[in-house]
């Protein structure tokens, strides 16, 4: 199994969610996050004083899938989140040792 | 003193009753205006500094402030006597002009309240609350009361000897609060992280709401200062609206040219700057004068708020840049735009009055600014020595809301929900007392 983590622009969340649902991904976790990549932050002006805001609001999506589905899921997230402009975010995956469904105690891919 | 038997005019009294309530509303409005501009960790403290000013100034005003400001002069136009301390001898049938004296005293009280509250903007996020509770009443008696006597009191030297004009309080309200704010923020020193950390306004809609309430109340402030339901009140009312509008437009114009974006904070600040400047002049200048006064204040103040970064004084919410500078602009422009139809005699430079009126306005501005700055600086230093004027570094860093008031303004949870379950629990007071016993 793989844990796929995506950091995306908040306004692309609906598209990404829909794309994952259409692929049959049954569950995901969404977190409000903030950070920066190469685009750095933005500038705000209050009474003429400029403030450099380094951390930009982002949404983080975590989803665990079977190894065979991982590449397709990553591609789907990228397609749905992409605007082509700076600040679109990142997607990465890491191997997952085990998953347990708390309600039933099922383990491994059955728990997904 | 009028020779005819004093007589209460019901129309004048009705208007002044309403105007008094309007002016009082400005202080909660100011609390929101300021509160939105600070960070989340000290917003309640900001609101509290204004609210306690209402209570503190009212008590000292009734005890002796009113008598010292508006009682018969006892020192060559410098201060009134104590004959009416505790509002002694004043009842429902006493008359001041055409309104009950008790109403006149209450109307004037609301001015003293907001002037003290205005200073809090210069010391946001770091003043020791206990020291503020002492500062406000003492400051009201040492600074506001004498200046009000000079300008409006019977025999006051600025109003009745120098004959400088100030219709609704450019000198006692705007310039004293601005000069005092400067003095107090110098005594206190800058906030931790001044010029380093981003100290963004945490709630701009709150700032806009506060500005709206201030503007609404300002009609009572300025048009009420006509002391009656008269044509002059109507003219002052219209001038107040006009100057607020051109102040707003002037500030936005500068922002558009200088920063590239017209901001909500700029709109709110520009309107307030225009209103500040028209305060002394609303009952003395023509409508054209009012439009110019507002525009000048909007433009000048939008630059003046940047001085603190160059000169290194942390006037956190720009009491100096908006109230001192705007007050000076408005008070001086009377010397140019005073019109006979409004003043009943005096005329400004542009209406053939020569340079003398401008000189009188300048002298009054300088005297009041220097007096307010000097006395406040001395009072601030004294309080700092006796009880400490500044919150501890830890309190300031954590936020005054939690450390001073044991409250937080907002329940910050994940995705808009409340705090996570188990993050806090309810401890009934009784139980707390028992466990301590």
Automatic annotation (TrEMBL), chain A:
One of its GO terms (biological process) is regulation of nitrogen utilization. Transmembrane segments: none annotated. It comes from Streptomyces spiralis. Pfam families: P-II. Keywords: Nucleotide-binding, Phosphoprotein, Transcription, Transcription regulation. Coiled coil: none annotated. The modification O-UMP-tyrosine is found at residue 51. This is Nitrogen regulatory protein P-II. Homotrimer. One of its GO terms (molecular function) is ATP binding. Gene3D superfamilies: 3.30.70.120. One of its GO terms (cellular component) is cytosol. InterPro entries: N-reg_PII (IPR002187), N-reg_PII-like_a/b (IPR011322), N-reg_PII/ATP_PRibTrfase_C (IPR015867), N-reg_PII_urydylation_site (IPR002332).
TrEMBL record, chain B:
It is a multi-pass membrane protein. InterPro entries: Ammonium/urea_transptr, Ammonium_transpt, Ammonium_transpt_CS, NH4_transpt_AmtB-like_dom. It is found in: Cell membrane; Membrane. GO terms for cellular component: plasma membrane. Keywords: Ammonia transport, Membrane, Transmembrane, Transmembrane helix, Transport. Residues 14-410 form the Ammonium transporter AmtB-like domain. GO terms for molecular function: ammonium channel activity. This is Ammonium transporter. It comes from Streptomyces spiralis. The lineage of its organism: Bacteria, Bacillati, Actinomycetota, Actinomycetes, Kitasatosporales.
